[in-house]
Amino acid sequence: MSNAPASAHPITDRTREALAVTRRGCEELLVEEDWLKKLARSEATGAPLRIKLGLDPTAPDIHIGHTVVLNKMRQLQDLGHQVIFLIGDFTSLIGDPSGRNSTRPPLTPEQIKANAETYYKQASLVLDPSKTEIRYNSEWSEPLGAAGMIKLAAKYTLARLLERDDFTKRFKGGVPISMHELLYPLMQGYDSVALKSDLELGGTDQKFNLLVGRELQREYGQEPQCILTMPLLEGLDGVEKMSKSKNNYVGITEAPGEMFGKLMSISDDMMWRYFTLLSFRPMAEIESFKAATAGGANPRDFKVLLAQEIVARFHDKAAADKALEDFNHRARGGVPDEVPEITTSGAPLGIGQLLKQAGLAPSTSEALRNVEQGGVKIDGSTVSDKGLKLVAGTYLVQVGKRKFARVTLTS
């Protein structure tokens, strides 16, 4: 088999359009010329390209930042290509060292299985499950055995592995690198050989591993895959990458109203990046929204369209419409129709503890910060006293514009 994509097929307008879809919002496409040739061949022959996304199920829940790469898979899936959702059940036993300055403890097979099931169920809210090939890399990694692993390791040098930024820093800093960590990029690269991948997607932090796959395919006489890296989405603060630990995330299993309100809180400038990376609207339409805003249109109207699209994707249109209705009602000072009912004890209880126990603040210190900023209301009245203690009773508690709870406090 040739080690370069065939170039005899014509580059049509449709091929160029597919390239534009591929490039939308991406950080890097390597090698673009090779990918264009693959697209042209696919169009001329009718044979779909094989597009791979490998995920180690290290955590069960995903937020919309994780869906940036899934959205790209869906766009390519809609062009008629075969997407492969690869669950790294074998590589999870090693632990991906990417971007880490210490060895990651490997997961147990039970943890991996449970996380993988939840992860794929959530990813199916973006991908078309009927057109998605699900594979587990234990299929070909376990049968390799010791002899196969040695043959694979012989196809790559230690010097090349140590070029990787995180390995370089750890090596120079005298931080231990375990032998099994050096195997991780090789095993991920071997996945591309086993699946005969034409394109592999990943975050910018995965670039080295993706390039290893490309080199190993050459070693095995295959046409090398192209590589597409997607950026890491900034969170609601518009600064740090979206992360649960930074509390700047939108979870894809969150309630529609919470999801809608969070998306409405992003800045007007950040909205356009969210549109590019998260929306399935054509870029021409998004550009028309930008032009309308520059001409004086209210950016809030377009933010509503974005929030509704995303809520509808992970819930449904009725939920998106209801979320908008509730959001507008709250903006006018109203109370949502559905308010969580919470019972807690300890009266008389300090306001900080009450907010924490009611789930309206992650910590007492954060709760008191909200009080300081005038963001807490009890039965419609703003609380200004951080030392307030509440006696037994039932209260309508509000934090910010979006969080409400009807709290029954007992002694």
UniProtKB/TrEMBL annotation:
EC class: ligase
Motif 'KMSKS' region: where in chain: 241-245
UniProt GO MF annotations: tyrosine-tRNA ligase activity
Gene source species: Piscinibacterium candidicorallinum
Name of the protein in its database record: Tyrosine--tRNA ligase
Subcellular location: Cytoplasm
SMART domains noted in UniProt: S4 (SM00363)
Catalytic activity: tRNA(Tyr) + L-tyrosine + ATP = L-tyrosyl-tRNA(Tyr) + AMP + diphosphate + H(+)
Domain named RNA-binding S4: residues: 349-410
